[in-house]
Protein backbone atom coordinates (compact mmCIF):
# COMPACT_ATOMS: atom_id res chain seq x y z
CA UNK A 1 0.00 0.00 0.00
CA UNK A 2 1.28 3.47 -0.85
CA UNK A 3 0.88 5.85 2.08
CA UNK A 4 3.84 8.21 1.71
CA UNK A 5 2.89 11.76 2.64
CA UNK A 6 -0.57 10.83 3.86
CA UNK A 7 -1.85 12.66 6.94
CA UNK A 8 -2.40 10.96 10.31
CA UNK A 9 -5.69 11.23 12.17
CA UNK A 10 -5.82 13.15 15.45
CA UNK A 11 -8.80 11.19 16.66
CA UNK A 12 -6.64 8.84 18.61
CA UNK A 13 -6.54 7.90 22.27
CA UNK A 14 -3.23 6.29 22.98
CA UNK A 15 -3.72 4.15 26.07
CA UNK A 16 -0.86 1.80 25.34
CA UNK A 17 1.03 0.77 28.43
CA UNK A 18 -2.02 1.27 30.66
CA UNK A 19 -3.76 -1.77 32.03
CA UNK A 20 -6.96 -2.34 33.93
CA UNK A 21 -6.19 -3.46 37.46
CA UNK A 22 -9.72 -3.94 38.76
CA UNK A 23 -12.21 -5.58 36.48
CA UNK A 24 -15.85 -5.03 37.40
CA UNK A 25 -19.10 -5.76 35.61
CA UNK A 26 -20.58 -8.81 33.81
CA UNK A 27 -20.13 -10.82 36.97
CA UNK A 28 -16.54 -9.73 37.35
CA UNK A 29 -13.68 -11.87 36.13
CA UNK A 30 -15.90 -14.90 35.47
CA UNK A 31 -18.06 -12.93 33.09
CA UNK A 32 -15.07 -11.63 31.24
CA UNK A 33 -13.64 -15.11 30.87
CA UNK A 34 -16.98 -16.34 29.54
CA UNK A 35 -17.02 -13.57 26.95
CA UNK A 36 -13.48 -14.39 25.91
CA UNK A 37 -14.43 -18.07 25.52
CA UNK A 38 -17.52 -17.29 23.48
CA UNK A 39 -15.63 -14.89 21.30
CA UNK A 40 -12.72 -17.26 20.81
CA UNK A 41 -15.11 -19.98 19.67
CA UNK A 42 -16.84 -17.69 17.25
CA UNK A 43 -13.69 -16.34 15.62
CA UNK A 44 -13.29 -13.45 13.25
CA UNK A 45 -12.89 -10.00 14.64
CA UNK A 46 -14.01 -11.44 17.85
CA UNK A 47 -14.54 -8.36 19.95
CA UNK A 48 -17.59 -7.51 17.89
CA UNK A 49 -19.54 -9.88 20.06
CA UNK A 50 -18.97 -7.70 23.08
CA UNK A 51 -20.64 -4.96 21.16
CA UNK A 52 -23.51 -7.16 20.00
CA UNK A 53 -24.40 -8.62 23.34
CA UNK A 54 -23.29 -6.20 25.99
CA UNK A 55 -23.66 -2.92 24.21
CA UNK A 56 -26.02 -1.29 26.66
CA UNK A 57 -25.61 -3.29 29.83
CA UNK A 58 -22.12 -2.30 30.66
CA UNK A 59 -22.29 1.36 31.50
CA UNK A 60 -21.60 2.84 34.89
CA UNK A 61 -19.22 0.25 36.17
CA UNK A 62 -16.21 1.11 38.26
CA UNK A 63 -12.78 0.35 36.93
CA UNK A 64 -9.36 1.62 37.82
CA UNK A 65 -6.38 1.96 35.56
CA UNK A 66 -2.82 1.75 36.68
CA UNK A 67 -0.45 4.59 35.95
CA UNK A 68 0.84 4.77 32.45
CA UNK A 69 3.74 2.50 31.97
CA UNK A 70 6.69 4.60 30.93
CA UNK A 71 8.27 1.99 28.70
CA UNK A 72 9.24 3.21 25.27
CA UNK A 73 7.61 1.63 22.28
CA UNK A 74 9.60 -0.34 19.75
CA UNK A 75 10.12 0.94 16.25
CA UNK A 76 7.73 -1.72 14.98
CA UNK A 77 5.01 -0.60 17.42
CA UNK A 78 5.41 3.03 16.44
CA UNK A 79 5.30 2.10 12.77
CA UNK A 80 2.06 0.20 13.26
CA UNK A 81 0.58 3.04 15.32
CA UNK A 82 1.43 5.63 12.65
CA UNK A 83 0.10 3.34 9.94
CA UNK A 84 -3.19 2.93 11.84
CA UNK A 85 -3.49 6.72 12.19
CA UNK A 86 -2.98 7.14 8.44
CA UNK A 87 -5.58 4.52 7.60
CA UNK A 88 -8.06 6.10 10.03
CA UNK A 89 -7.45 9.49 8.39
CA UNK A 90 -8.20 7.88 5.01
CA UNK A 91 -11.50 6.52 6.32
CA UNK A 92 -12.35 10.00 7.67
CA UNK A 93 -11.76 11.56 4.23
CA UNK A 94 -13.68 8.91 2.32
CA UNK A 95 -16.67 8.60 4.62
CA UNK A 96 -17.01 12.38 5.16
CA UNK A 97 -17.37 12.76 1.42
CA UNK A 98 -19.77 9.87 1.07
CA UNK A 99 -22.00 11.02 3.93
CA UNK A 100 -22.02 14.58 2.61
CA UNK A 101 -22.94 13.33 -0.84
CA UNK A 102 -25.99 11.69 0.68
CA UNK A 103 -27.02 14.64 2.83
CA UNK A 104 -25.64 13.25 6.06
CA UNK A 105 -22.89 14.24 8.47
CA UNK A 106 -20.03 11.86 9.20
CA UNK A 107 -19.05 12.03 12.85
CA UNK A 108 -15.47 10.82 13.27
CA UNK A 109 -14.96 7.80 15.50
CA UNK A 110 -12.00 7.66 17.91
CA UNK A 111 -9.36 4.97 17.63
CA UNK A 112 -8.19 3.72 21.01
CA UNK A 113 -4.80 2.02 20.97
CA UNK A 114 -4.29 -0.14 24.03
CA UNK A 115 -2.21 -2.97 25.38
CA UNK A 116 -3.67 -6.12 26.90
CA UNK A 117 -6.99 -4.93 28.32
CA UNK A 118 -9.12 -1.83 28.05
CA UNK A 119 -12.22 -0.27 29.56
CA UNK A 120 -14.96 0.80 27.18
CA UNK A 121 -18.58 1.94 27.41
CA UNK A 122 -19.47 -1.58 26.26
CA UNK A 123 -17.57 -3.29 29.07
CA UNK A 124 -13.99 -4.43 29.41
CA UNK A 125 -12.19 -5.46 26.29
CA UNK A 126 -9.14 -7.64 25.96
CA UNK A 127 -6.61 -8.24 23.24
CA UNK A 128 -7.83 -11.85 22.99
CA UNK A 129 -11.09 -10.55 21.52
CA UNK A 130 -9.42 -8.94 18.55
CA UNK A 131 -10.20 -5.40 17.38
CA UNK A 132 -13.75 -4.21 18.04
CA UNK A 133 -16.10 -1.25 17.78
CA UNK A 134 -18.27 0.02 20.65
CA UNK A 135 -21.21 2.12 19.52
CA UNK A 136 -21.95 3.36 23.05
CA UNK A 137 -18.78 5.50 22.91
CA UNK A 138 -18.24 5.39 19.11
CA UNK A 139 -14.69 4.19 19.51
CA UNK A 140 -12.64 1.51 17.78
CA UNK A 141 -10.39 -0.52 20.05
CA UNK A 142 -7.14 -1.95 18.76
CA UNK A 143 -4.24 -3.72 20.43
CA UNK A 144 -1.48 -3.50 17.84
CA UNK A 145 -0.18 -6.95 18.79
CA UNK A 146 -3.18 -8.23 16.80
CA UNK A 147 -1.28 -7.31 13.65
CA UNK A 148 1.78 -9.22 14.75
CA UNK A 149 -0.25 -12.38 15.34
CA UNK A 150 -2.07 -11.83 12.07
CA UNK A 151 1.24 -11.66 10.26
CA UNK A 152 2.27 -14.91 11.94
CA UNK A 153 -0.95 -16.62 10.96
CA UNK A 154 -1.25 -15.36 7.41
CA UNK A 155 2.45 -14.98 6.76
CA UNK A 156 2.91 -18.23 4.96
CA UNK A 157 0.81 -17.33 1.94
CA UNK A 158 0.73 -13.57 1.99
CA UNK A 159 3.45 -11.59 0.35
CA UNK A 160 4.86 -8.20 1.22
CA UNK A 161 4.12 -6.18 4.30
CA UNK A 162 0.53 -7.28 4.76
CA UNK A 163 -0.27 -3.62 5.26
CA UNK A 164 -3.41 -3.59 3.17
CA UNK A 165 -4.65 -6.58 5.14
CA UNK A 166 -4.08 -4.52 8.31
CA UNK A 167 -5.93 -1.60 6.76
CA UNK A 168 -8.84 -3.91 6.01
CA UNK A 169 -9.10 -4.75 9.73
CA UNK A 170 -9.38 -1.06 10.66
CA UNK A 171 -11.73 -0.32 7.76
CA UNK A 172 -14.01 -3.18 8.85
CA UNK A 173 -14.35 -1.73 12.35
CA UNK A 174 -14.96 1.71 10.84
CA UNK A 175 -17.60 -0.09 8.77
CA UNK A 176 -19.47 -0.86 11.99
CA UNK A 177 -19.32 2.85 12.84
CA UNK A 178 -20.82 3.64 9.44
CA UNK A 179 -23.57 1.10 10.19
CA UNK A 180 -24.13 2.87 13.49
CA UNK A 181 -24.39 6.35 11.96
CA UNK A 182 -26.75 5.06 9.27
CA UNK A 183 -29.02 3.58 11.97
CA UNK A 184 -28.45 0.00 10.82
CA UNK A 185 -26.54 -1.23 13.87
CA UNK A 186 -29.17 -0.38 16.47
CA UNK A 187 -32.05 -1.59 14.28
CA UNK A 188 -30.23 -4.88 13.84
CA UNK A 189 -29.47 -5.22 17.55
CA UNK A 190 -33.13 -4.59 18.39
CA UNK A 191 -34.18 -7.26 15.91
CA UNK A 192 -31.57 -9.69 17.23
CA UNK A 193 -33.01 -9.37 20.73
CA UNK A 194 -36.48 -10.34 19.42
CA UNK A 195 -35.60 -13.55 17.60
CA UNK A 196 -34.11 -16.93 18.56
CA UNK A 197 -30.39 -17.61 18.67
CA UNK A 198 -30.15 -19.13 15.18
CA UNK A 199 -31.89 -16.15 13.56
CA UNK A 200 -29.91 -13.70 15.70
CA UNK A 201 -26.74 -15.32 14.37
CA UNK A 202 -28.01 -14.91 10.81
CA UNK A 203 -28.55 -11.20 11.44
CA UNK A 204 -25.10 -10.92 13.01
CA UNK A 205 -23.59 -12.45 9.86
CA UNK A 206 -25.31 -9.78 7.74
CA UNK A 207 -24.01 -7.02 9.99
CA UNK A 208 -20.48 -8.38 9.67
CA UNK A 209 -20.69 -8.84 5.92
CA UNK A 210 -21.95 -5.28 5.59
CA UNK A 211 -18.90 -4.08 7.55
CA UNK A 212 -16.75 -6.08 5.10
CA UNK A 213 -18.62 -4.45 2.24
CA UNK A 214 -18.03 -0.97 3.70
CA UNK A 215 -14.33 -1.83 4.12
CA UNK A 216 -14.32 -2.59 0.39
CA UNK A 217 -16.11 0.70 -0.36
CA UNK A 218 -13.50 2.58 1.66
CA UNK A 219 -10.70 0.93 -0.35
CA UNK A 220 -12.51 1.82 -3.58
CA UNK A 221 -12.60 5.55 -2.79
CA UNK A 222 -9.27 5.69 -0.97
CA UNK A 223 -7.60 4.26 -4.06
CA UNK A 224 -9.54 6.62 -6.30
CA UNK A 225 -8.40 9.63 -4.26
CA UNK A 226 -4.85 8.61 -3.39
CA UNK A 227 -3.88 5.71 -5.69
CA UNK A 228 -3.10 3.84 -2.50
CA UNK A 229 -3.32 0.26 -3.75
CA UNK A 230 -0.30 -1.51 -5.13
CA UNK A 231 0.03 -4.88 -6.85
CA UNK A 232 -1.01 -7.78 -4.67
CA UNK A 233 -2.87 -5.64 -2.12
CA UNK A 234 -6.30 -6.84 -3.13
CA UNK A 235 -5.29 -10.51 -3.08
CA UNK A 236 -3.78 -9.90 0.36
CA UNK A 237 -7.02 -8.49 1.75
CA UNK A 238 -9.11 -11.24 0.18
CA UNK A 239 -6.78 -13.85 1.64
CA UNK A 240 -7.31 -12.19 5.01
CA UNK A 241 -11.11 -12.08 4.50
CA UNK A 242 -11.10 -15.78 3.70
CA UNK A 243 -9.08 -16.69 6.75
CA UNK A 244 -11.51 -15.05 9.14
CA UNK A 245 -14.52 -16.86 7.68
CA UNK A 246 -16.46 -18.78 10.35
CA UNK A 247 -16.12 -22.06 8.46
CA UNK A 248 -12.37 -21.64 8.10
CA UNK A 249 -11.83 -20.77 11.77
CA UNK A 250 -14.15 -23.47 13.10
CA UNK A 251 -12.64 -26.14 10.88
CA UNK A 252 -9.20 -25.08 11.97
CA UNK A 253 -10.14 -25.06 15.66
CA UNK A 254 -12.36 -28.16 15.88
CA UNK A 255 -12.02 -29.99 12.60
CA UNK A 256 -15.62 -29.28 11.53
CA UNK A 257 -17.92 -26.29 11.04
CA UNK A 258 -21.43 -25.67 12.39
CA UNK A 259 -23.15 -23.22 10.03
CA UNK A 260 -25.97 -22.41 12.50
CA UNK A 261 -23.40 -20.96 14.91
CA UNK A 262 -21.79 -18.68 12.33
CA UNK A 263 -21.81 -15.03 13.37
CA UNK A 264 -19.45 -13.43 10.83
CA UNK A 265 -20.08 -15.33 7.58
CA UNK A 266 -18.14 -17.90 5.57
CA UNK A 267 -14.82 -17.26 3.86
CA UNK A 268 -16.56 -17.07 0.49
CA UNK A 269 -19.17 -14.60 1.78
CA UNK A 270 -16.59 -12.34 3.43
CA UNK A 271 -14.42 -12.25 0.32
CA UNK A 272 -17.49 -11.72 -1.91
CA UNK A 273 -18.79 -8.69 -0.01
CA UNK A 274 -15.39 -7.09 0.39
CA UNK A 275 -14.74 -7.42 -3.35
CA UNK A 276 -18.20 -6.09 -4.19
CA UNK A 277 -17.53 -2.97 -2.11
CA UNK A 278 -14.11 -2.55 -3.66
CA UNK A 279 -15.52 -2.77 -7.17
CA UNK A 280 -18.63 -0.63 -6.79
CA UNK A 281 -18.31 1.67 -3.74
CA UNK A 282 -22.09 1.86 -3.95
CA UNK A 283 -23.67 3.59 -0.92
CA UNK A 284 -27.05 1.91 -1.41
CA UNK A 285 -26.01 -1.72 -1.47
CA UNK A 286 -26.79 -3.68 1.68
CA UNK A 287 -26.57 -7.25 2.92
CA UNK A 288 -30.07 -7.02 4.43
CA UNK A 289 -33.25 -7.68 2.49
CA UNK A 290 -35.60 -4.72 2.08
CA UNK A 291 -37.90 -5.00 5.15
CA UNK A 292 -35.69 -7.23 7.27
CA UNK A 293 -34.89 -4.59 9.90
CA UNK A 294 -38.30 -2.92 10.07
ZN1 LIG B 1 -17.13 -6.92 12.71
What does this molecule look like?
It is a single-pass membrane protein. One of its GO terms (cellular component) is membrane. It is found in: Membrane. InterPro entries: Uncharacterised_pept_Zn_put. It comes from Prevotella histicola F0411. The chain is of the alpha/beta class and 294 residues long. The chain has one domain. The protein has 10 helices and 8 strands. The protein has a 4-stranded mixed beta sheet with strand order 1-4-8-7. A two-stranded antiparallel ribbon has the order 2-3. Helix 3 packs across helix 5, helix 3 packs across helix 7 and helix 6 packs antiparallel against helix 7. The longest helix is centred in the C-terminal third of the chain and has 30 residues. The radius of gyration is 18 Å and the shape is globular. The protein starts with 11 loop residues before the first strand and ends in a 14-residue tail after the last helix. About 16% of the residues have low confidence. The chain binds zinc ion. The site of zinc ion has 6 residues, from helix 5 and helix 7.
Q: What's the count of strands? A: 8
Count of folded domains:
1
Mean pLDDT: 82
Number of helices: 10
Shape: globular
Q: Which structural class do you get from the secondary structure elements?
A: alpha/beta
What compounds are bound to the protein?
Answer: zinc ion
Strand order of the largest sheet: 1-4-8-7
Q: What percentage of the residues does DSSP assign to strands (E)?
A: 5-15%
Distance between the termini: 40 Å
> Radius of gyration over alpha carbons?
18 Å
What series of H and E elements makes up the topology? EEHHEHEEEEEHHHHHHH
- Please estimate the helix content: 40-55%
Stretches with pLDDT under 50, minimum 5 residues? 22-47, 49-70
Give the biggest sheet. Answer: 4 strands, mixed
Amino acid sequence: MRLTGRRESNNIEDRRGKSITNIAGIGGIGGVIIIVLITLLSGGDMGDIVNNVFQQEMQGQVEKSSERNQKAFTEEENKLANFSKQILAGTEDVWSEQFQKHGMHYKYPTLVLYTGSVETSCGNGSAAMGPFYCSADQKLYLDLSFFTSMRRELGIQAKGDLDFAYAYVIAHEVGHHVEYLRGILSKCHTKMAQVDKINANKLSVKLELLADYYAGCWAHYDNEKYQSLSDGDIEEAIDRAEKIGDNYLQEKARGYAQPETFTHGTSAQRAYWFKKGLETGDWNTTTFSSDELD
